[in-house]
Amino acid sequence: MKLAGLILAGGASRRMGSPKALLKLAGETFLDRLILLLAPHCDPVVVVLGYDAEPIRSGIRLAGRVRFVVNPAPERGQLSSLQSGLRQIPANAAGVIFSPVDCPHLRPATVARLAEEFEAAGDRAAVVIPTCHGRRGHPVLIARQLFADFLELPPEAQAREVIHANRERTRYVEVADAGPRHFDVGEGWKQFIDS
């Protein structure tokens, strides 16, 4: 079952003072780490840029392995980046695995489990979400059948509205992963990032 990958890297990173996509962990940028994470299971991997698009594009090692799209209105927030990315997913992809760029601790086994659960569940799963000790997080897998619902959301809406409307077709996969959630890359987190 063909899946695409989608990395949301269009934010302004105001609190960090520099693009989160270019922060480094274990010698790799956050964006390069996520590309390597998704690439074994996803083709293509689409990266949505917005603010600082050119510095990010030129500042990563694996730019040649992804498709870039620029969100024309990144000030509208993460939903607008998700919508920009979904419009670029090829028609033959059964679903997409997406994550914000600031989730660098995610493990390959987590992505593999999402893909396995989606394939095993067939039409019974429209959304697959990882959990760790009861906490839900990223990346999230959504089936193609929901793309239109996300694309029709108005600017003031949130992506979770579509997920909540499809609770009966949402699968939760428990994973042994320190990072299946959105990490708050703030002051307390800087100690874990390469300077």
Tell me the β content. 15-25%
- The secondary-structure class comes to alpha/beta
For the secondary structure, the number of strands is 10
How many distinct helices? 6
Average pLDDT, all residues: 88
Low-confidence stretches: 180-195
Coarse morphology: globular
Strand count, sense and closure of the main sheet?
A: 8 strands, mixed
The share of residues in helices is 25-40%
Tell me the span between the first and last alpha carbons.
40 Å
H/E element sequence: EEEHEHEHEHEEEHHE
Spatial extent as radius of gyration: 16 Å
Write the layout of secondary structure elements.
Elements: E1 3-9, E2 24-25, E3 28-29, H1 30-38, E4 45-49, H2 53-59, E5 67-70, H3 78-86, E6 95-100, H4 108-121, E7 127-132, E8 135-136, E9 140-143, H5 147-151, H6 160-165, E10 170-174
Parallel strand pairs: 1-4, 1-6, 4-5, 7-10
Antiparallel strand pairs: 2-3, 6-9, 7-8, 7-9
